[in-house]
């Protein structure tokens, strides 16, 4: 056994820790610089864990399960931080939270009901996650004209949501 097989899961656990730190920072005044640093660390670990697991051929069911819990938590907590600490419109936060939470709950329900983890991703979903992280980044770093990209995220988010629902239905039917 080499250390390589533990690095991807370690990065996922690290992102879980980053998520907990972001929860703490929500309640801390003057925490923007720390939140920016931890958000960037979480983004880097999100990109690296799966990439390294595939590159080194050490993908595991444990890693997939960890990621299926940590990724939505990281995204939701980052969004909550942006909602509480930046100038984003409240309805945008509730819209995004509704999409992410319902997708995550549907995924968990289908996985539980079929007794098999749903771990399919499409390019549409990957781009949706990318746009979400870009929007969070833009609001955390107060990038000018961020509201213009916000509408792209809102519309694209709905398309991703519908596509993800379609994928869940297909997965459920295949397992019957």
TrEMBL record:
The chain crosses the membrane at residues 20-45, 92-112, 124-142, 148-164. The keyword Lyase does not apply. It holds the Pfam family CDP-OH_P_transf. The keyword DNA repair does not apply. GO terms for cellular component: membrane. InterPro entries: CDP-OH_P_trans (IPR000462), CDP-OH_PTrfase_TM_dom (IPR043130). GO terms for biological process: phospholipid biosynthetic process. This is CDP-diacylglycerol--glycerol-3-phosphate 3-phosphatidyltransferase. It comes from Candidatus Kerfeldbacteria bacterium RIFOXYB2_FULL_38_14.
């Amino acid at each position: 056994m080499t250390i390589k097989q533990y690095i991807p899961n370690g990065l996922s656990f690290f992102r879980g820790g980053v998520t907990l730190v972001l929860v703490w920072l929500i309640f801390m005044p003057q925490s923007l610089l720390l939140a920016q640093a931890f958000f960037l660390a979480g983004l880097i670990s999100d990109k690296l864990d799966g990439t390294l697991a595939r590159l080194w051929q050490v993908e595991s069911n444990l890693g997939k399960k960890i990621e299926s819990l940590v990724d939505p938590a990281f995204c939701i907590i980052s969004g909550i931080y942006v909602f509480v600490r930046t100038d984003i419109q409240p309805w945008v936060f509730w819209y995004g939270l509704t999409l992410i939470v319902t997708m995550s709950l549907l995924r968990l329900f289908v996985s539980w009901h079929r007794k098999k983890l749903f771990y399919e991703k499409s390019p549409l979903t990957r781009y949706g996650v990318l746009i979400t992280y870009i929007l969070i980044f833009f609001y955390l770093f107060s990038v000018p004209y961020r509201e213009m990209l916000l509408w792209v995220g809102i519309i694209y988010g709905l398309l991703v949501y519908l596509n993800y629902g379609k994928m869940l239905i297909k997965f459920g039917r295949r397992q019957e």
